[in-house]
Amino acid sequence: MECQIQQPSLPSPAAARAPSRRPPQQLGHVVATRPPSPPDGLSPEGPDLAGATTPTVKARRCPHRSSLRERESLATAVPAAARLAGQLLELKGNIRVFYRVRPLLPNESGAVAYPKSGENLGRGIELTHNGQMYFFTFDKVFEQSTSQEDVFIEISHLVQSALDGYKVCIFAYGQTGSGKTYTMMGNPELHDQKGLIPRSLEQIFQTSQALISQGWKYKMQASMLEIYNEAICDLLATNHTTIQDGGASKYSIKHDANGNTHVSDLIIVDVLSINEVSSLLKRAAQSRSVGRTQMNEESSRSHCVFTLRIFGVNEGTDQQVQGVLNLIDLAGSERLNKSGATGDRLKETQAINKSLSCLSDVIFSIAKKEEHVPFRNSKLTYLLQPCLGGDSKTLMFVNLSPEVSSTGESICSLRFAARVNSCEIGIPRRQTQVRSLAQG
Ligand SMILES: Nc1ncnc2c1ncn2[C@@H]1O[C@H](COP(=O)(O)OP(=O)(O)OP(=O)(O)O)[C@@H](O)[C@H]1O
After folding, report:
1. What's the confidence (pLDDT) of residue 7?
2. 87-110 pLDDT, tens per residue?
3. Does residue 207's CB lie within 6 angstroms of at least one atom of ligand 1?
């Protein structure tokens, strides 16, 4: 069940520290239902970054060699190791899991350690709880000192693949105050503190500009919503209405046959530059439901979903791609007795915990390969259905607080993450086609 966990009731600290004997390739399930498509940049029919070459030349030369070379020059921002990790990620059909531990705050004492060598270096974490040692391994661990930039480098290849026509979904999960918002958004104004969302968007715009010389033209559309107390709220709307406000016909979620999600009445903005997206992010951040709790001065009380739809066409080859980038900052899980929530905070906390528990039910159901997966039990799970049960490239960040009193919650988060990591959601599928003459 907890495939990446060495049992909690370990006999001795020495045994607890013994490295896992599981060979690295078993850490994720390789889905072998059909041969995996070659990693980005290796696809002969590639509308990807590499495939964006002059069509006549491309048709005559070895696509593999040219693709790789061109990608090398285009994606200079993505170091080779991270690209390789991304390609591996793509070959597996699982939801990948990275975890990040936030630094200790003043007056906190830590209960987290990491393997210093061996096969679990960079992937393992040890927690001590009530005198027992717990050991987990996942795809990647970011220790307290890891910078925002280093975290982004590890996911930049995944982000890039949205331009190739993939659906990409990255979400942050974890206890309240563990660093989800810092990881996803951070402070977009300060270079060192910029989170994954602003960095991803910068990269997408830079790369799309670089591809103009190879015949590619991209159109981008952004939307941003939050799910607060089980109601959807449009963060780009100037005048907020939710279903609870009486806008009953508003914001219903639908998925089309290609697994694309549509939320009725949601404002979708054409964005032409990174500056335009930045001001949208600023607007949305001001609208987000934030409150003070005992656990976090500025706690996000909602799940926040940023979506960038990417439409690309190559004027030379008539190839079209349609990618989606979903970046999601979930509300934090919290124990009611620890958070001290009352009144509105209590209601919010209950709604957050209920939707996270629905997420957990969905994950359990997918992991057990059950016929019926209860996606419709909450707005969050229904919205995430294509990311959790479809053909998208999905990555979950588990954010952890290193603080002693948080270890119980951290262990729950890590157990949940192990389930998520074991979910096989299928090989990611690229949305691409050749433009017909009729389309112009
Ligand atoms: N990697 C980090 N480096 C520096 N500070 C961090 C880091 N991660 C989190 N913090 C700080 O810790 C505090 C809590 O982080 P954050 O608000 O991101 O948590 P959260 O998980 O989003 O919480 P909630 O679920 O309540 O919204 C913030 O003050 C944030 O700036």
Report:
1. 32
2. 655 566 678 889 999 999 888 888
3. no
Q: What is the pLDDT of residues 404-424, one digit of tens each?
A: 989 998 998 998 888 888 887
CB of 180 sitting under 6 A from ligand 1: yes
Domain boundaries, the chain: 5-17+29-435
User: Which pLDDT band, with edges at 50, 70 and 90, does 437 fall under?
Assistant: low
The better pLDDT of the pair 104, 49 is held by 104
HEC profile of the chain: CCCCEECCCCCCHHHHHCCCCCCHHHCCCCCCCCCCCCCCCCCCCCCCCCCCCCHHHHHHCCHHHHHHHHHHHHCCCCCHHHHHHHHHHHHCCECEEEEEECCCCCCCCECEECCCCCCCCCCEEEEEECCEEEEEECCEEECCCCCHHHHHHHHHHHHHCCCCCCEEEEEEEEECCCCHHHHHCECCCCHHHECHHHHHHHHHHHHHHHHHHHCEEEEEEEEEEEEECCEEEECCCCCCCCHHHCCCCCCCEEECCCCCEEECCCCCEEECCHHHHHHHHHHHHHHCCEECCCCCCCEECCEEEEEEEEEEEECCCCEEEEEEEEEEECCCECCHHHHCCCHHHHHHHHHHHHHHHHHHHHHHHHHCCCCCCCHHHCHHHHHCHHHHHCCCEEEEEEEECCEHHHHHHHHHHHHHHHHHHHCECCCCCCCEEECCHHHC
Binding site annotation covers 179?
A: yes
Protein residue closest via CA to atom 7 of ligand 1: 102
Q: Is 175 annotated as a binding residue?
A: yes
The answer on pLDDT for 166 being more than 70 is yes
pLDDT tops 80 at residue 439? no
313 pLDDT higher than 60: yes
Q: Is 195 in the pocket of ligand 1 (CB under 6 A)?
A: no
Confidence category of residue 335, pLDDT binned at 50, 70, 90: low
For the CA of 100, the closest atom of ligand 1 is 1
Is 39 close to ligand 1, i.e. is its CB under 6 Å away? no
Q: Whose CA is nearest to atom 31 of ligand 1?
A: 182
The CATH number corresponding to 5-17+29-435 among 1.20.1250.20, 3.40.50.300, 3.40.850.10, 3.90.220.20 equals 3.40.850.10
Q: Is the shortest distance between the CB of 177 and ligand 1 below 6 Å? A: yes
Choice from 108, 148, 150, 182 to test ligand 1 binding pocket (greatest atom count within 8 A of CB):
182
Using the atom order of ligand 1, give the atom closest to the CA of residue 329.
Answer: 22
Entry pTM: 0.78
